[in-house]
Amino acid sequence: MRKCQFQNCEEEIWNKSEDDYCIFHDPQEHKKNSEKFQKLIDEKIEKNDYDFHKYVFPENLDFSEIIFKKYVDFGGAEFTGNVDFSESVFEESCSFYLARFYGESNFENVEFKNKVHFQWTAFSLCSNFKKAIFRKEVFFEGARFLSPVDFEKVKFETNVEFEGCIFEKANFSEGEFKGDTLFRDAVFSKKTFFFDSQFKSDVNFEFAVFHNEAKFEKSYFEEKANFQNANFDTVNFDDAYFEIGRFHEADLRNASFSYTVFDKAYLSGAKFEIDTKEGKNRIKNNLRSPGVEKIRLRRKEQQFCKFKNALQEEGFYDKAGDFYYFEKLVNRAIMFKETVILRKIRV
After folding, report:
1. CA-to-CA distance for 95 and 76, rounded, in angstroms?
2. Cα torsion at 205, 210, 215, 218 (round to 10°)?
3. Cα Rg, the chain, nearest whole Å
4. What does DSSP assign to residue 44?
5. Are the CB atoms for 331 and 308 separated by under 8 Å?
6. DSSP state, 282?
7. Smallest Cα–Cα separation from 177: which of 157, 207, 206?
8. Contact at 8 Å (CB) between 222 and 243?
């Protein structure tokens, strides 16, 4: 029997292969019959043979509701169509290192009981990790999500790394991060959602870039939250809680911190900006719709107070004075319905 020329592969050469590859490693996926291929994969799984290293999968394969009992290797594999892993369980570690998903990928409700490797994996179309559970360390370093990815209600039981990842549009709403979380140098191209997420250990967004709106409302940061040198287009931290928030050199000129709670905040070198036109219009509107605008102004007053206190604690008294000045201006607008113009400032 002539064997596949792929290194260490013991499979026989596929009769349709032009380059002496087996049916699993041959790159001509358009020649492969999906039903036949699925049958061969099912036979491997029944034997607890989970070596899929650099396989080229045809479209629409089903790996759902499978219990993988040993180490699983999808490293370098190419999924040319949609693939479904939903409801499956990986009892040992698994690798998708350098894998390519050209179709949609579904990992909803998957349970990973051991380490998972997605380093430098590329997802061309939508990917779904909704309600997935990661029991051990997860590595997404350098992964590229070129279409929307959904991590809603995901659970990371220990450390997770998204360092250097590229996200087209990402949803981590109601996610639970129990270990250290790393998003350093990540790039978020479109809207990003961390609404009501729980970070129970250190989280690092250092040098991350958000090209569109980032929403962290009601998120909870129990340990250190590091946003040093992060760059935001627009970011919303309303109703969030920070045990320790580090924003050194961060661009917060379009940030909202209404009702945000800081036990400790570090803001040296952070960029703030209060727009003159916005401030003037909001306070003028106070005369026409006092109920709604009074609430908005109270939030703005509280935001100025938070930053004033944080800067005072760091010893930046002159910069804290700017926020104290604006805090009192807004307070006068609330109390006496005055029209006050806020000049543009940067700290």
Report:
1. 9
2. 10
3. 26
4. H
5. no
6. H
7. 157
8. yes
Residue labelled with tokens 């916005």: 278
Tokens of 30: 């358009």
Q: How far apart are CA 24 and CA 11, in angstroms?
A: 8
Q: Are the beta carbons of 89 and 110 closer than 8 angstroms?
A: yes
Return per-residue pLDDT of the chain as tens, 347 residues.
678 888 888 888 888 888 888 889 988 877 777 788 888 999 999 999 999 999 999 878 899 999 999 999 999 999 999 999 999 999 999 999 999 999 999 999 999 999 999 999 999 999 999 999 999 999 999 999 999 999 999 999 999 999 999 999 999 999 999 999 999 999 999 999 999 999 999 999 999 999 999 999 999 999 999 999 999 988 888 888 888 888 878 877 778 777 777 777 777 777 766 543 444 333 333 333 444 455 556 666 766 777 777 777 777 777 677 777 667 766 766 665 544 444 444 44
What is the spatial distance between Cα 226 and Cα 224, in angstroms, rounded to a whole number?
Answer: 6
Total length of the chain: 347
C-alpha distances in angstroms, 40 versus 56, 82, 214? 13, 18, 44
Query: Of the candidates 95, 59, 60, 92, which has an alpha carbon nearest to the alpha carbon of residue 77?
Result: 95
